[in-house]
């Protein structure tokens, strides 16, 4: 599975929503992406990409788009 | 007993978590592997504050008290770790709660609690309670530890 598929799957599995809805998604846009949903998403991404994210990056991860930029720091390129 | 397992009396429990009388529902822990699992005991005598009201002619432990017993056993799976001792916790989710046996004055509830996952201040796990060999109640719990958890929440 390529990185974009893994990335999208973390969102769709964690929040139980379709891929169509995730592209413009921001933190707290949907009830599923609340504070606990956020931690579950971070755990899912860490597992998918075998990384350990830093606190500042977890706090800055405020949208689907922003998340792609943050993952670059961990050498995870999502196109 | 395994050398990793410990026992805790009520004084140890009071030092490990913040529930106090009349809302402390664990009397002792007969074995615990901190960060993993424990077995706890709650004794119910007629002196419990809720029995005269629930119910006068048929005293039994209210469901919300049973849930609280399970939850208090659950949080002690991680509050018994040195680094989390005495932290406050909040409920986040309770799912699949089951109540299968009336618990009455004189009963002893034995609770097995398992911590499945603890990450960034979110604890997830399962508890089940027995009276003797009879299954009494169970539930899946997600609990947050605000002091840890809040450090990771995005600013909107």
Give an overview of the whole structure.
The complex is a heterodimer of chains A (79) and B (156). Chain A has helices spanning 3-15, 35-49, 55-60, 64-72. Chain A contains four helices and no strands. The radius of gyration of chain A is 11 Å and the shape is globular. The mean pLDDT of chain A is 94. The two termini of chain A are 13 Å apart. Chain A has a single domain (3-72), classed as Non-ribosomal Peptide Synthetase Peptidyl Carrier Protein, Chain A, CATH 1.10.1200. Chain A is mostly helical and 79 residues long. Chain B has 156 residues and is α+β, with helices and mostly antiparallel strands. Chain B has a single domain (6-152), classed as Hotdog Thioesterase (Thiol Ester Dehydrase, Chain A, Roll). Helix content of chain B is 18%, strand content 38%. Chain B has a seven-stranded antiparallel β-sheet. In chain B, β6 (122-131) and β7 form a beta hairpin. Chain B starts with 5 loop residues before the first strand and ends in a 7-residue tail after the last helix. Classes of the chains: A mainly alpha (79), B alpha+beta (156). Chain A binds chain B through residues 27-28, 35-36, 38-40, 42-43, 55, 58-62, and chain B through 92-93, 119-122, 142, 144, 149, 151-156.
Mean pLDDT metric of chain A: 94
Low-confidence stretches of chain B: none
Structural class of chain A comes to mainly alpha
Q: Give the largest interface.
A: A-B, 15 and 15 residues
CATH T-level topology of chain B = Thiol Ester Dehydrase, Chain A
Count of all domains of chain B: 1
Give helix and strand order of chain A, one letter per element, not per position: HHHH
Architecture of chain A in CATH?
A: Orthogonal Bundle
CATH class bucket of chain A: Mainly Alpha
CATH superfamily of chain B: Hotdog Thioesterase
Largest sheet of chain B: 7 strands, antiparallel
Rg of chain B, Cα atoms, Å = 16 Å
């Amino acid at each position: 599975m390529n990185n974009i598929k893994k990335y999208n799957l973390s969102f769709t599995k964690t929040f139980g929503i379709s891929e169509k809805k995730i592209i413009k998604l921001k933190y707290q846009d949907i009830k599923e992406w609340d504070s606990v949903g956020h931690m579950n998403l971070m755990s899912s991404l860490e597992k998918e990409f075998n990384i350990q994210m830093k606190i500042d990056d977890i706090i800055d991860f405020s949208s689907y788009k922003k998340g792609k930029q943050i993952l670059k720091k961990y050498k995870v390129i999502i196109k | 007993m395994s050398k990793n397992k410990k026992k805790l009396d009520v004084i140890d429990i009071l030092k490990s978590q913040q529930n106090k009388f009349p809302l402390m529902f664990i009397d002792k822990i007969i074995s615990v592997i901190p960060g993993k699992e424990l077995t706890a005991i709650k004794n119910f005598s007629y002196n419990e504050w809720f029995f005269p009201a629930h119910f006068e002619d048929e005293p039994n432990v209210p469901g919300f008290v049973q849930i609280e017993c399970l939850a208090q056993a659950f949080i002690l799976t991680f509050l018994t770790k040195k680094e989390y001792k005495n932290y406050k916790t909040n409920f986040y989710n309770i799912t699949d709660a089951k109540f299968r046996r009336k618990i009455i004055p004189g009963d002893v509830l034995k609770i097995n609690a398992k911590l499945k996952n603890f990450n960034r201040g979110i604890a997830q796990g399962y508890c089940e309670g027995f009276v003797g060999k009879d299954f009494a109640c169970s539930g899946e719990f997600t609990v947050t530890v605000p002091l840890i958890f809040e450090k990771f929440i995005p600013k909107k």
